[in-house]
Amino acid sequence: MVGALLAFLLLTAQVPQVVNLPKAEAEAQIQSVGFQFQEIGEASDTVGPGRVIRTDPQASSRKRKGTTVSVVASAGRNPVAIPNVNGLPAAVAAFQLQGKGLVVSQVAQASDTVAAGNIVSTDPLANTLVAPGSAVKLNVSSGLAGKTAPPTSGPTASNPRRRWSGPLLHGPGRGRL
Which of 58, 61, 75, 160 has its CA 20 to 30 A from that of 124? Predict the structure, then answer.
């Protein structure tokens, strides 16, 4: 009986506690007690990149020496897909992006097709995967490029009897005057 217990203790080892250690340090500890090391990467919002999230088999379990211990190491935070905010008011777009943990800046861009104050495009483009905390530039329409906009309705402000005589604008959401 004592011989069997002694053989068990000599042929087995306890899986070391390596959670939250750097991957290299975990590998050294696991191999030092006679186990094989296998790394598996996994995204984590709570454990820093390159640190151990968990092991399989679990720490403190006793296993035969030579057994492979799989170490799940953090590959960093989950990437974020930039939402399509084109055409939205700048404040709404910024709110959506900031809600995803992105850093927002705005640049004015003339546009014949997007109303002033609304988003023309983003950089990086919509649906691009980026790390949380990444910078996203909002290209915000400053209005019509090189054209004078007609009054929104009725006669001009300076002369109530005069009709608009500027260029006619056509396109989505713009009728003939």
Answer: 75
| H/E run at residue 13 | strand 12-14
Indicate if 70 and 34 belong to the same structural domain. Answer: yes
48 and 68 assigned to the same domain: yes
Q: pTM of whole model > 0.70?
A: no
The residue among 129, 177, 133, 169 whose CA lies nearest residue 149 is: 169
Note whether 168 and 176 are within 8 A (CB).
yes
| Domain total of the chain | 2
* 20-41 pLDDT tens trace: 999 999 999 999 999 999 999 9
Chain centroid to CA 69: how far?
A: 31
Q: Which of 45, 48, 141 is nearest to 101 (CA)?
A: 45
Nearest to 138 by CA among 98, 81, 177, 80: 98
Give the Cα separation of 79 and 13 in Å (integer): 38
Residue 69 confidence (pLDDT): 98
